[in-house]
Amino acid sequence: MRIKKHYTLSALLILSAFVTMAQPNMSEDGLKEKRFYIKAYGGYGLFTPGSYRVESRNQYVYQSGTAGVVPILRDTTLVSLGKKGIGGGLRIGGGIGINLSDFLNVGVDAEYFKGNTLVNNSSNKNAFSNSLTRSTIDYKVISITPHILFKARSTPNYYIYNRVGILLSLPFTLNYSGSDSLAYEPKIQTVTSGSGSTQTTTTYRTLSKSVKTYSGGYKVPLSIGLNVALGVQFKIAGNLRGFGELFANYSVLSPQSYHETSKRTASGSVTETTTPGNKTTITNVITTYDLDTDITYKKDGALTYKYENVKPSTISNIPSGTTTQNFYNLSSQTTSSINRNMNAIGINIGIAYKL
Question: Cys-Cys link to 52, which of 244, 265, 333, 340 (CB 3.0-4.6 A)?
Fold first, then answer.
């Protein structure tokens, strides 16, 4: 709460500077100085320290047990994180400002930011299972940044400056999509019944596979952050100026909700071979799960969870001799709020023109 009050106070001070100090200065010969300027720029976020990174989760199947005891297959979940976080990528923007003095400017920038598409692949394979996961994040953000610019060194041909601003990221969707698959390697079990001439031996070979695809997104409301920069502006010709700067952004995103649509198809087969006679029977089972998930995030809110089966889903291209099961489900949850940092360090290059 104190941080938000600090941001609000800073914004009011910047706006007050526009209103109270935008009166035209007069030079010694009585002519109005050119105080307003416009600018356009492009840039790129190179580094994303401390930012939220895309996650991949693998189901890992392993065997446990003690000597003399039949081993038990167990599973757990392994989580891996991508190398880069959200906040990096191409951005273009423009703005307007006022020269308040030889050492102080105020202005407002508007920026369109196309975040890098982040992909994280992870896999795990052992004697019992083989899993592969692919997760993707993509997003686009429009931001408004009122700022104050301090000129550290000023000459007629160039000046060095640092800038501090309030970064207002307008509501957007942080899109999440991906797929995961899990295959259990064939398991062989032999059962013998009868004796002598009536003895039969049946060998069972089982194989199962699960594939899930999903797409969804976090709904992010207006977010408040900080923008700082260190740069140099130089004269090109007349009222035209060029500039280059090193910038850093810091934002904390607090999603309001998350919606996801997913489809999982689980298939399994059992091959029975019985001797004598070498009779072989193959049984296939395919099960599909269509799931719509809605999560609402509330600060200090009560946790709720609802899961219901609505109607059967549909699957196509069913092999002959296959048993199918179909489920379509809805899941809705209310849970505690979460935060996702979106930070960036990068460069901007642009031009400015005094009006």
Answer: 340
